[in-house]
Amino acid sequence: MSTRADTALRLLIVDDRVEDAEALASGLRNAGIAVRPLRPESDDDLGRIIGSQSPDVVIAARNSTVLPFAQVMQRIADSGRDLPVIALVDTLVEADYIDAIQSGARAVALRHAPQQLLACVREAWADRDARRGLRRLEARVRETERRCDALIDSSRDPIAYIHEGMHIRANAAYLEMFGYESFEDVEGISLLDMVAPQHVESFKALLKSLSKGEPPPPRHEIEARDVDGNAFPASMEFATAQYEGEPCLQVVFRRREELDAVLVLELEELRHRDQVTGLLNRPTFLRAIEDAVDDAAQSDGQYGFLMLEPDHHQQLLADIGLDHADDLLAAAAEHLQTLVGDDATVARYAGHTLAILLRGHDYHATSATAERIRAGFADHVFEVGERSSVITVSIGGVQVGEKIANVAQVLARATTALESASGTGGNRCEVFDPSAVDRVEEERIQAWVARLRGALDSDGFVLHYQPVINLQGDNAAVYDVLLRLDGGDGELIAPGTFLQIAEDNGMLGEIDRHVAARAIAAIGQRLRAGHPTTLLVKVSQASLDGDAFADFVGEQLAEHQVPGEYLVLQLPEAKVFTHLKATQAFAARIARFDGRFALEQFGVGLDSFQLLSHLQPHLLKLDRSFTDDLPNNSENQARIGEIARRARQVGIRTIAEFVQDAASMSILFGADIDYVQGNFLAAASPGMQYDFE
């Protein structure tokens, strides 16, 4: 599913009230989904959005009167687009549910059950992506089939496709071998008709076993007969296939020269072997990997895959001589075969890299085998030419299973593990276990929780201050407080790395109090030094619950003798929309000691100014997206001007952050923005040394 952080969900919301639509979008944002909401206000607007904006998911209120649900479904059906619709209801009524599903809705969600709505959105989005991916794959398969068909036609090998014993496809070489002029002459003829009478019964038994799913023999030798009844010795090779969507059997016929049967088998074996080591060659081994991957994906089979290289190979060659390079590899291959069991398939993968496929091995068995091979090499003295030497090896591997049933991933993971083992000194094993990823992630999160707890207990957080500069002539000192985590060794970690973990583990409230207390203390120090300073401090929605945080701020202001007007607490617009009553109560509580609050990330909602009919913030900080490439974005220029104008009408000041160049500064000044900040003006730093004069 495309819910990664850099992908936004284009969400079309059909709802009568913009506040309700914004609440839906905000709820999804709170759940970690980047949302680009769209809300049509008329049927024409709906048609335009569907046709040009390409939404991913539609949430349509069943009780909408502006755009009735049936009208929305008809408009989507008429568009011909694959657009999943979630019907939104206030209460679940069986008749409404059935009607919505029969109308084409993918799901029905309750407005006041945010987790159920979230699950519906995720599922609808994932299904849409899956269907798109399937259509792309189908197109590729069709193209591949066309190319394969062309290759079959041009092949010199006689090839036919057999379904239920009958010919459904044959190439020109096949027709020529049996004396037919066109495929129409052989279409529908049984494959048994191509077999000499004395082989019919045994061939019937073979076809019966193949129809049961039993593996075909590498080669089946018979006497074939052509259209005139002439017999000739032939060999047949089989493979399961599909033709025009039908499962079938691919048969390759070859005329068989009257060679000694033992010699034929020896030649066949040599075709699959590497001449230096006697192991399987790469093409044959890759087919074995493909079979293992298919079995893991379809039947939950377990396989271990290991890649092995002698350590310090170039130095070894320098010691024994380049003319003994093949002897070295052959000796390593011979010893490797003594260290693995009969359930292992061993091959020369590439150059001096050997590979092992282990059947029926779970992760622990694969790791144990890798360690046994490593130790077996380290303890063995190799005789190569006139020299004897200990050869250690590096081993990288991967556990092939349902979570990594992909040939490219298997090879890439094993190669990475091999490079890691070799790069850290050699004589080591590294085996990647996909099923351990979840455990590793849990351990990572717990390590972060412990790290954050340590930072709270031992003052491990660092505050940086970025100047916020007034464009209208006011030279009072104002800084935005930015949180960092001391990572040790001089490394500072940005909050985007750890705040989600803090939120998931209930630590945001503590972090808010920690930052607020330090910011108030810093304001107090500046006041006593004769440098009155206003600090903008970000707080989370966790601090909106109850009176605790507001009371704590009041106590800290009193303790450090700081007037509340010097502290501005910032709340994201999206969080405020979904915690409106709590924000109103919070604003009232901090107003008792003259504390201020600001809305940040402002302007990206469906109707951001709707909030201002319920709240009166002291500052609006525009979302950073508005200043991205501002000189070349006329739409953002117009939007900034509109926000500044409307804010000024109701007596609210505005801040534009992430200002990147002088041209942007000029545009913001012309739009009557009050404050600006960004690295172009002054970067954040641990101190407050900016000269505002």
UniProtKB/TrEMBL annotation:
<feature type="domain" description="GGDEF">
    <location>
        <begin position="301"/>
        <end position="434"/>
    </location>
</feature>
<protein>
    <submittedName>
        <fullName>EAL domain-containing protein</fullName>
    </submittedName>
</protein>
<dbReference type="InterPro" id="IPR001633">
    <property type="entry name" value="EAL_dom"/>
</dbReference>
<dbReference type="Pfam" id="PF13188">
    <property type="entry name" value="PAS_8"/>
</dbReference>
<keyword id="KW-0175">Coiled coil</keyword>
<dbReference type="InterPro" id="IPR035965">
    <property type="entry name" value="PAS-like_dom_sf"/>
</dbReference>
<feature type="domain" description="Response regulatory">
    <location>
        <begin position="10"/>
        <end position="126"/>
    </location>
</feature>
<dbReference type="InterPro" id="IPR011006">
    <property type="entry name" value="CheY-like_superfamily"/>
</dbReference>
<dbReference type="Pfam" id="PF00990">
    <property type="entry name" value="GGDEF"/>
</dbReference>
<dbReference type="InterPro" id="IPR000160">
    <property type="entry name" value="GGDEF_dom"/>
</dbReference>
<feature type="coiled-coil region">
    <location>
        <begin position="127"/>
        <end position="154"/>
    </location>
</feature>
<dbReference type="InterPro" id="IPR035919">
    <property type="entry name" value="EAL_sf"/>
</dbReference>
<feature type="domain" description="EAL">
    <location>
        <begin position="445"/>
        <end position="693"/>
    </location>
</feature>
<dbReference type="InterPro" id="IPR050706">
    <property type="entry name" value="Cyclic-di-GMP_PDE-like"/>
</dbReference>
<dbReference type="InterPro" id="IPR043128">
    <property type="entry name" value="Rev_trsase/Diguanyl_cyclase"/>
</dbReference>
<dbReference type="InterPro" id="IPR000014">
    <property type="entry name" value="PAS"/>
</dbReference>
<dbReference type="InterPro" id="IPR001789">
    <property type="entry name" value="Sig_transdc_resp-reg_receiver"/>
</dbReference>
<dbReference type="InterPro" id="IPR029787">
    <property type="entry name" value="Nucleotide_cyclase"/>
</dbReference>
<dbReference type="Pfam" id="PF00563">
    <property type="entry name" value="EAL"/>
</dbReference>
